[in-house]
Prior knowledge:
The chain has helices at residues 45-55, 65-70, 119-135, 152-160, and strands spanning 26-29, 32-39, 76-82, 85-97, 100-110, 140-148, 164-165, 179-185. 37% of the residues are buried. The chain has a single domain, classed as Aminopeptidase, CATH 3.40.630. The chain is built from four helices and eight strands; from the N terminus they run E-E-H-H-E-E-E-H-E-H-E-E. It is an alpha+beta fold. The two termini are 25 Å apart. Coenzyme A is lined by residues 6, 55, 108-110, 115-121, 147, 151, 153-154, 156-157, 160.
Amino acid sequence: MARHSFARPSGQQASYQTRVEILETRTRAAHHPGVLVRTANIDDQAFIAAIAGDVFSPYGDYRELLPQWFHTAGVMTFVSQSEQERTGYVMLAFFPEERALVGDVLAIAVAPGHQGKGIGRMLMQHVVTVCEQIAEHTPVRAVRLSVADTNLRAQRLFLSFGFRQLEGDFGRYDGGQKALHLERPLP
Ligand SMILES: CC(C)(COP(=O)(O)OP(=O)(O)OC[C@H]1O[C@@H](n2cnc3c(N)ncnc32)[C@H](O)[C@@H]1OP(=O)(O)O)[C@@H](O)C(=O)NCCC(=O)NCCS
């Protein structure tokens, strides 16, 4: 996240001058017929804050920060939902770099009772697809994210999507964990 995102720990705020509009995107997975990934709306704010407080607490205080990102221009939030129950979300933004854009997965979270059932994979697939769709008409170099060195479960998910660790020192989360930066080039 930035100061606060997994993408950018303390002091490395992203520039969100580039606004990418995705009005409505939806994903349904064939192997999860009841699960939908949809664009978030204002009614999702309390859920976003509550899950952030639950799952990101080892890394810092994200309960207030994630709803702020949700309202930040250029940040896209997608929520996974099973029937009427929200199960997780992912946040994506773009920043300019060398005459192209880089997608930045700011946060991904699945509610504790729903983890390990393929929802995180579905959310990741959704943001990668969104990046690929944008790359069809705008140069997008890569998708990046940040993850704590201790978070092996999330790392395994990201590696399975073709993300690879970048060299360098990217600081630490407020919880003291070392931040790793991972990148997946886009063709
Ligand atoms: C990381 C997270 C988003 C993954 O979502 P999920 O719905 O639990 O994961 P999925 O069921 O889709 O599994 C996806 C992959 O994650 C990994 N994974 C899932 N559960 C795991 C476990 N118990 N142990 C190790 N790896 C695991 C596996 O690689 C799995 O792929 P596979 O099913 O092909 O083996 C979720 O666990 C979460 O919200 N964690 C807390 C917040 C967090 O750490 N976010 C990432 C910050 S960068």
